[in-house]
Amino acid sequence: MADPNSLPLTRASVLSAHDLIKPLHAPHRRRARRDPLGGASACKAQDQDLVQVREFPEGNHAQALSLAASTMSIPAHIVMPRISTPAKIAATQSYGARVIFSGSTALEREAVVADVIAETGATLIPPYDHPHIMLGQGTAGLELQEQVLEAQGASGKGKGGLDAIITPCGGGGLLSGTALSAQGTGIRVFGAEPSFEGADDCRRGLASGARVETVKSLTIADGLRTPVGAWP
């Protein structure tokens, strides 16, 4: 059970983490069992994967991954910057994850991730740069649109829906998912990121036509210190 002071989890983050971890929980060793009548053999699961998973963002997704892994009895190794807020660290640990600390930049975190893989044989669960993450995060956009329509209907003020959604942009998983959720609706989607110490890498990348792969900002918006991912 999570600490009562833990940060709240969003259903979108839990869905994303669960969808990525579930295949690791599937049976992976199958032994042929001969049919007593001499017919075709059947395959029966003998064991299950015990693959360790870990990631390197902070906050909501780290907690979601820890929760999803714990429900499947899979060890989770979460790489987080040393300067992460105590609330985020405690919330992640409250779900049973092992937290390993790293430097604050993406390159420093990736170096620690490589060490964790070498030590444990862990399977990488990306924090944002994966289509399943984007689809899972996109459910938040769908729920928002549904709730707005319900609220407008209950208030008697019509059912015009949303004009726009502004979404924070760190690695881009939530922003990409939100954009997918709004396709064909006429809703405009905007990404927001801080400009402090070059944290506006997505804006700069779009302006230059090339993705900015390194961000070294120590903006107070710690969840947005990571460069936008390679997936569109």
Descriptive overview:
The strands form four sheets. A two-stranded antiparallel ribbon has the order 1-2. Strands 3-6 form a two-stranded parallel ribbon. Strands 4-5 form a two-stranded parallel sheet. The protein has 232 residues and is an alpha/beta fold. It is globular, with a radius of gyration of 21 Å. 40% of the residues lie in helices and 16% in strands. Strand 7, helix 6 and strand 8 (188-192) form a beta-alpha-beta unit.
Summarize the structure.
The chain is of the alpha/beta class. It has seven helices and eight strands.
Helix content: 40-55%
What's the total helix number?
7
Which regions are unreliable across 5 or more consecutive residues at pLDDT < 50?
Answer: 27-52
What name is given to the CATH topology of the largest domain? Rossmann fold
Count of strand segments: 8
CATH architectural grouping of the largest domain: 3-Layer(aba) Sandwich
Estimated structural class:
alpha/beta
Coarse shape: globular
Calculate the terminal CA-CA distance, rounded to whole Å: 36 Å
CATH class of the largest domain: Alpha Beta
The major pleated sheet works out as: 2 strands, antiparallel
Mean pLDDT: 77
Strand sequence of the main sheet, in spatial order?
A: 1-2
Total count of domains: 2
Strand fraction band?
Answer: 15-25%
The radius of gyration is 21 Å
Secondary-structure element order, as H and E? HEEEHEHEHEHEHEH
